[in-house]
Specification:
about 80 residues, mainly alpha, 2 domains
């Protein structure tokens, strides 16, 4: 298991410690759970998820990539680009 050092404002660190204690969890557990809830996953997990979604949707790799780029841009509020 890897270790990570981060800097947090004192009040946020205190709130994190209190939340971990209330849940009988470690701070590391809460951070890991939060990252997972935020959608941060190992690359292989993401690849497997995309492969299953593509298979389910019956999209080619190119169609899936085009759709993913368009959806990402829309989520970021970027203007749609016209295909040539």
């Amino acid at each position: 298991m890897s270790r990570l050092t981060i800097s947090l404002p004192d009040d946020l660190h205190r709130a994190l410690k209190e939340a971990a204690a209330r849940r009988d969890r470690t701070i590391g557990d809460l951070v890991a759970e939060s990252l997972a809830a935020y959608g941060i996953k190992p690359r292989e997990s993401a690849r497997e998820l995309v492969a299953r979604a593509r298979e389910h949707a019956r999209l080619s790799e190119e169609e899936a990539l085009t759709l993913a780029v368009a959806e990402t841009r829309a989520a970021r509020g970027e203007p749609r680009r016209r295909s040539s």
